[in-house]
Amino acid sequence: MRLIRYDRKSALDYAQKWAMSRNTAYLNFDGIGGDCTNFASQCLCAGVGVMNYEKDIGWYYNSPTDRAAAWSDAGHFRRFMFSNTRQGPFGVSVSLNQLEPGDFISLNNGTEYYHTLIVTGFSDSILLVAAHTDDAYMRRLSTYRYGSAHGIHILGANKL
Predict the structure, then answer these.
(1) Does position 72 have pLDDT exceeding 90, yes or no?
(2) Distance between CA atoms of 6 and 22, rounded to whole angstroms?
């Protein structure tokens, strides 16, 4: 297995390009659960370039009907990033003040993880994010309403 460095700049360039529009190479999940984690996965994929094609437990997108739940569902995305030991990206849980541009934030409403954001920068130490569903770029995290927010620091990816 080979460790692949996470190219944060590529992930952030992708976020800037597509935050306010949709890449037609991917299904738009607006209206069918939301597009936030799909967008986050696209950004992450731009930064690691490798997917995990393991049926049911992987993180991949081939088509609207051939994709992993972790690609487009906030809870599955988070679980995958913390449990993946095979091919594809992986990360660790960190506090919000430990996040870097290119990392991710999972919002929780007290019952479930429902929204995934990519960290795009800071303004006077305030986190700025990009997201889909309610399209945003360089939006202050403090403008969101949520029960709790949890950081995902991406360490890299493995390639078999």
Answers:
(1) yes
(2) 23
